[in-house]
Structure formats: C-alpha cells, structure tokens
Amino acid sequence: MTAAITPLTQRWSTLSWTAEELLARDSWRGTLPADVAAEFVAFVARRPGLTEATFVHDPCELPRMAAFGARVRESLLTGDGLFWLRDVGALGLAAEHLRCLFVAMGCALGAPMLQYGRLYPVFDRGASYTTQAVPVSMTNADTCFHTDSSSVGVVPDFVGLLCEQPSDRGGDSLVSNALTVHEVLQRLHPQALEVLRQPRIRDVVTPGTEKTIENLLRNRFPVFADSIGPGGVLFRYMRYWIEVGQQKAGQPLDAEQLRALDLLDELLQQPEHCVRFRLEAGDVFWVNNRLLAHNRTAYTDTPENQRRLQRMWIQAPVSA
Ligand SMILES: [Fe+2]
Fold it and tell me: How remote is the CA of residue 296 from the centroid of ligand 1, in Å?
C-alpha cells in the first residue's frame, strides 16, 4: 500500500535550506566557546592517563559542555541540521584527549549508539562496498549521498565525525538537504515521491543482524516516511544497499523505481541543495541523519598521509 503524501503545510524555514541560504549564515559553523574549552582542559588536567576508553561522561563534571551540546542539539534538530566545529586542534590536546572531547560532545547531544562501538575509526581498509557487504566507511570511494545505517531498527539521529588526519588528495565533505529535496518532489514530482514512499528492501550490513533471507525481507522501509519529528519526514537512503537488497530478494527494481532513484540522486547532487567543505585536523562535524544526506569525495591515501576520522552515532533524547 502506498503511504499518503504529507501535505505541504509548513516550510521549515531554517531546516529546509538551500546552499545559498546556508552559506549566507554562520550558525552552522563555529569554534568551541572559550568557557567550554577551559572547562575541558581543566577536566583533562585532573585526570592523568585519561583515554577515550576510560572516559566516562558525567554532565555534572562538564556542565558547560552539556549546555553547549544542548544548544548544538537544538540546531541539529530544528535549526540548520548540521554543525561544523572548527579549530579544536588549536587547543593543543593530545590525540586521546581530542577523542575524549569528541565523545563528551556526542554524549552532550544524546546517547551514543554502540553497533560499531562508541567511536568507530573511519579509514580506507582497502575494501570495496560494491564487491563485499561492508560499510562504505571502510573504503576510499565516493559514497554517493546517503544516510547512515541500512538497518530497519537502527536509526542514528545524528552522525558525528572527528577529523584526525585529512586527506591531501580528495575526501571533501558534502551535505545535501533531503528535506528541501522532499519539498521539490512534492511540488514538481509527486508521482516519483509516491514511489520513494514505498518500502524497499535494504541489504543487511549494519552489525547486530544475522544475514539471513528472513532478516533481509524484514529489512524493508521507505526512502521518505512521515515523521512526527521536525521536518515531518524521515529520510533514509543509500541507493546501493537498496539495489543489492532488492536483487538478493529476487525483486530487482523496475524501471519506474530506478527512475525515481535517478531523480532523487540528481536533486541531491544539484548545487542549490548541497554544500561542500573540507574538514581539517581537529575539526568535528555533526549532521542530522534523518533529514540531511552526506557524502564525501573519493580520496587517495599515500604512504605519507592516511586519511583518518572517528565516527559516532547518536540517538537524541526522546524529549529533544
Ligand atoms: Fe556515512
């Protein structure tokens, strides 16, 4: 059965930005407030030998970080939908302490999800997601615009990245606004939107689910679904896992379904819907994984320089 299309009753004025609108404001990028930085540096100084593995989040010990996280969370949920924290490297923290700061900020945003561990290193493991069922985070490929997690029961609200070592050959970050694209589809392509609102099988990739045919057939949900959350829609997309999942289930996508995905990809890639930027060492980036798609350009490691990031998946508090 086809889900009803949500009537266009409200334009989420800041959430459904165009690239021009987003680039005209600075609310989505900034540095760590001085009082938050000072609090964290003092926290680290009181704990010799602190590592990410031993770091325990306690908002009473980092109240300024908690307040900062609450502001960023609000912006991710109802503001710009993304936040780029720059120049954290300028604090001069050791690599372990930088990871602790990233984890502290993630915990201030919500609850870390543990399917891949609290922190998950993202680097090129020499794998290809087109020949093995591995997450694209294990590869150096252009990932195409997507949201994280292909599992029906695992929906990270926010995805965070800490850049430890940028690539000097590619690896730029891209974010496209699926909420804005949804509005375009409602206005100009309602038939295609109807197709994108039908459930599709995704391949089982996210850890925690056995790769059986029963689980594959259960792993079925639409690209766009109605949501009671901000924006009114839930966007969950990675084309490759849909094509593979449908194929493995013996239900390859038909021409109309492929056309709808082509249109979606085209809209996500249009310059007015996406922004591109480059994370430097020490930068932290957060994105709303329910309304915005992310991507990175392909990159090449060299013996002298290997791109490396740490990732977190965060579930926002229910009341957020
Ligand atoms: Fe991703």
Answer: 8
Q: How far apart are CA 320 and CA 229, in angstroms?
A: 10
Asked if residue 25 lies in contact with residue 82, where contact means CB atoms within 8 angstroms, the answer is no
Distance 288 CA to ligand 1 centre (A): 11
Express each pLDDT in 72-88 by its tens digit. Answer: 999 999 999 999 999 99
State the distance from the centre of ligand 1 to the C-alpha of 3, rounded, in angstroms. Answer: 27
Residue 102 exposure: Cα atoms within 13 Å on the Cβ side = 36
- Name the superfamily (CATH) of residues 24-315: Clavaminate synthase-like (3.60.130.10)
Q: How far apart are CA 172 and CA 84, in angstroms?
A: 13
pLDDT digits 0-9 by tens, 91-123: 999 999 999 999 999 999 999 999 899 999 988
Helix ranges (DSSP H) in 233-305: 239-248, 255-269
Ligand 1 centroid distance, CA of 137 (Å): 7
Give the three-class secondary structure for 185: helix
**C-alpha of residue 309 to centroid of ligand 1, in Å:** 12
Domain ranges of the chain: 24-315
What is d(CA 16, CA 72) in angstroms, rounded to the nearest whole number? Answer: 17
**Cβ proximity of 166 and 278 under 8 Å:** yes
